[in-house]
Amino acid sequence: MSGRSAHGDTDGFTEFVASRGPALLRMALALTADRGLAEDLVQEALTRAVSRWGKLIRDGDPERYIRALMLNETRSQWRRRARRQEVITDEVPEPVASGATEHGVAHRIDMADILKHLSPRQRAIIYLRYYEDMSVAETATLMRCSPGTVKRQSFDALNRIRRLAPELMPDNDATEQEAT
């Protein structure tokens, strides 16, 4: 039985969504920092992909195409926001009082909250490099920028994360002092 519909050849599309949907949603969450927007982004990308599913399968990498759709849509949203004069600053908000219980449970660092303090482009690059384990070259290709841009944005984002959550990163000064 063929999986043809009004949208074309959809053999394997449902299975693809079931298996890769969670990874696509994680990427969308990293890009948007908002669950509702992330779900909309994935749905829009999958809606556009299903109409070309047969060709995407023949070309061999439908997930790469869908990820590119998601990045392109996110870039468009960034541009629309930039036109509205949204300003991103380097200022870190005052920390909220610790939620530690009386039993001394250390407060949990929520990476999603930390990623919200990065620029959208930095979020995308950090997600692709460290969550999806893509190389600099693969990230540059998907983001349509130079490898140097990926390296610089990664460097800047990691420095920002170090300032926001130093407990996530090894402290070089403390390590050097302990060695002496």
Number of individual domains: 2
Stretches where pLDDT falls below 50 for ≥5 residues?
A: 1-8, 97-108, 173-180
State the order of secondary-structure elements, H for helix, E for strand: EEHHHHHHHHH
How many runs of DSSP E, i.e. beta strands? 2
Q: Structural class given helices, strands, pairing?
A: mainly alpha
Number of helices: 9
Q: Rg to the nearest angstrom?
A: 20 Å
Largest sheet: 2 strands, antiparallel
Q: In one word, what is the shape?
A: globular
Oligomer: single chain
Estimate what percentage of residues fall within beta strands.
under 5%
- The average pLDDT value, as a whole number, equals 77
Give the strand order, joined by hyphens, for the main sheet.
Answer: 1-2
User: What's the end-to-end separation, in Å?
Assistant: 71 Å
The helix content, as a percent range, equals: 55-70%
